[in-house]
Amino acid sequence: MATPPPAAEIADTDVEVSLYEVRKKIHPRAVHGWFATWRWLFIFISQAVYYGLCWLPWNGRQAVLFDLVQRKFYIFGMVFWPQDVFFLAVLLIICALSLFLFTAIGGRLWCGFACPQTVYTEIFLWIERLIEGDRPARIRLDSAPLSAEKVGRRGAKHGVWLLFSLWTGFTFVGYFTPIKSLVAEVVSLSLGPWEMFWIAFYGMATYGNAGWLREQVCKYMCPYARFQGVMFDPDTLTVTYDGERGEPRGFRSRNVDRHAKGLGDCIDCGICVQVCPTGIDIRDGLQYECIGCSACIDGCNQVMDKMGYPRGLIRYTTQHALKEHWNWRQILRHIIRPRILIYSAILGMIIAAFLWGLGHKPGLRVDVIRDRATMAREVEDEQIENVFRLQVMNVSEKNQRYSLAVSGIEGIRIEGQNEIEVAATTTRSITVAVRAPEHSGHEGSNRIYFDVRSLNDANVAVHEKAIFIEP
């Protein structure tokens, strides 16, 4: 029987395994090229919309305003009420299907060009480069001992970051509190506690995510990175390194004949790693950390141009295209596949239904509630009276005057007021007495209908049912 080894020997063979990767600070290098231009174009457009839309006037109010206190959402000429939550649900479905479609076609295009985390990280990096310099200068500054210059540059950078973040939080709150009122409150130092909290919260979230966490959000916090694999297939366009052309890699001067030395096109310069915002090496294959920003494509193309080699060592392509050496016409022919057609058809139908619903959204809503505190009763002239509460919602942006009528039982009528005026985008509740001749209906519940029509627009009308009780 074998004798077990001493405890000391067992202890010597123990291996400590860390459950968390130690973060290595990434200093992305500035890169220029076709994809970088497109990325900055998307950044400019998205931020122009975000920071400018809340200042756009519309019919004497803010063009886009989510008034939570009054429970009304104003989006240009449309007013949405809590009853319109259906439109929000459909909009979220459209966004989800669009994400599935774009991912199946072109990979993580959203992440690389339009995701707020990517957008704000790029803006913060741009600020960092202006103050601290490009990659080599920032690395030197990190390793340099504490000095007045280091403190000054770091302080200036974080100061600009904080100001930009607070401006971002201020703009966010400006979509829920009228932006001009918010400015007046800031100037007069009379901000409410909730406005102050959300400006600080959203501002600090921007500062922390774009200034400190950066790639950690994409790699560990964003769920999209984890389930993107189920939306990819061999015909999905992704950022890909052409290993057949690039290997074996090796450094060489421009004048060296790479074929004579048995080398591929990759000169192992590491530019693709230096420009990557998540710090991965695309030459290791497709990785979930890749956000599809295409910075490595621009960086590699610059190196290929300097070496006199063809561009495209790193490029957007598909696994099948790389293996079969397809041209772009063949790639496009395989991109249009059944999966894409199904996604597109479903998405197109939902968008069409959504637009139709917006175009036919009623300008009037009426809720009829029978007053349970008042019993059905017999009044003068052998009439039966029921009392109802009508909640009339004018969801248009014009003052309206409505006529009230009732039908469903012979001789039924509204006693007293049969017209009502409702201001734009407001709700008015009125109590109406409805009378009908005795025995004109059957004993118990009788179905009746309220007709509310606009006197300003003949196309605006509501036919709402209710129950008339006859003792």
UniProtKB/TrEMBL annotation:
Q: Name all 4Fe-4S ferredoxin-type domain ranges.
A: 257-285
InterPro entries associated with the record: 4Fe4S_Fe-S-bd, 4Fe4S_Fe_S_CS, Cyt_c_oxidase_cbb3_FixG, Electron_Trans/Redox, FixG_C, Helical_ferredxn, Ig-like_fold
One molecular function GO term is: 4 iron, 4 sulfur cluster binding
Q: What GO CC annotations are associated with the protein?
A: plasma membrane
Give the keywords, sorted: 4Fe-4S, Electron transport, Iron, Iron-sulfur, Membrane, Metal-binding, Transmembrane, Transmembrane helix, Transport
Specify one Pfam family.
Answer: Fer4_18
Instruction: Supply the name of the protein.
Output: Type cbb3 cytochrome oxidase biogenesis protein CcoG, involved in Cu oxidation
Q: Which residues cross the membrane?
A: 33-53, 73-102, 159-176, 196-213, 340-359
Out of the domains of life, which is the source?
Answer: Bacteria
